[in-house]
């Protein structure tokens, strides 16, 4: 790890990475990851371990660039005045749950409250009814282009030959707006020619999950000390300065379970594949940062 300042000095950090040796179950049906980067709410997570060692505050951010690149910054509390919404933490299985109070698709606005897990380890967004129907039907009714119907091998119900020019906004608990920058999944042939576009939302029979595709173009702040989710639009390269908080010795709440591992986090796919292929305090003051390309499973949150 290195400090995220002008000097960028290396920092010795005792951090444990989980390595996969024997893959079983659902890991064999998609992608078998070589390991998991623990970013959940348990004390064994990387942010908590960093905070306990006095390296950074118990907060981190993940940035998802439109071009597929990204950044993880430990100790990042975001910026002053950033939009935020509180986490709704369930004691039995704590995860990064948030509450949505309103959905706006184009000019169609519906007051609809539901809880969802904010999970960067899931490539796409999974919603059950009534949220799924509200978004998909409103999205489709505003589009004049003919739907692609011969896509039974895909998990997406609403696909089009022309890129839909449609806005999708979520109002979070607390009243802040979250504009979904890139809700589409693009499918192309082996030569790279675009075949069709799909609304990247899958109907769920179980939990609601806000997946990585809804996070594209944002720096997402997981502030575990304030117990809030924050966000700012970002290209992941020219991030503004981050605010700092004093390091807390308080313990974080239990592990965030993996909900649905995906084969890839890229929103562009080839047919016939089913799954589309700041300164925080230390002893003085710094942020521990990782910079990496978003690949198969970027992180389990």
Helix/strand layout:
Layout: E1 2-3, E2 18-19, E3 35-36, H1 46-52, E4 59-64, E5 69-74, E6 84-86, E7 97-105, E8 108-118, E9 125-127, H2 131-141, E10 159-160, E11 168-172, E12 177-179, E13 184-188, E14 194-199, E15 201-203, E16 209-210, E17 218-223, E18 228-233, E19 268-270, E20 288-293
Please outline what is shown here:
This protein is mainly beta and 301 residues long. The chain has helices at residues 46-52, 131-141; strands at 2-3, 18-19, 35-36, 59-64, 69-74, 84-86, 97-105, 108-118, 125-127, 159-160, 168-172, 177-179, 184-188, 194-199, 201-203, 209-210, 218-223, 228-233, 268-270, 288-293.
Task: Describe it.
- The chain starts with a strand and ends in an 8-residue tail after the last strand.
- The chain contains two helices and 20 strands.
- The protein is globular and about 55 Å long.
- The protein has helices at residues 46-52, 131-141, and strands at residues 2-3, 18-19, 35-36, 59-64, 69-74, 84-86, 97-105, 108-118, 125-127, 159-160, 168-172, 177-179, 184-188, 194-199, 201-203, 209-210, 218-223, 228-233, 268-270, 288-293.
- The relative contact order is 0.27.
- Mean pLDDT is 76; it is low at 244-301.
- It has a seven-stranded antiparallel β-sheet with strand order 1-20-5-4-17-18-6. Strands 12-11-7-8-16 form a five-stranded mixed β-sheet.
- 6% of the residues lie in helices and 30% in strands.
- By secondary structure, the protein is mainly beta.
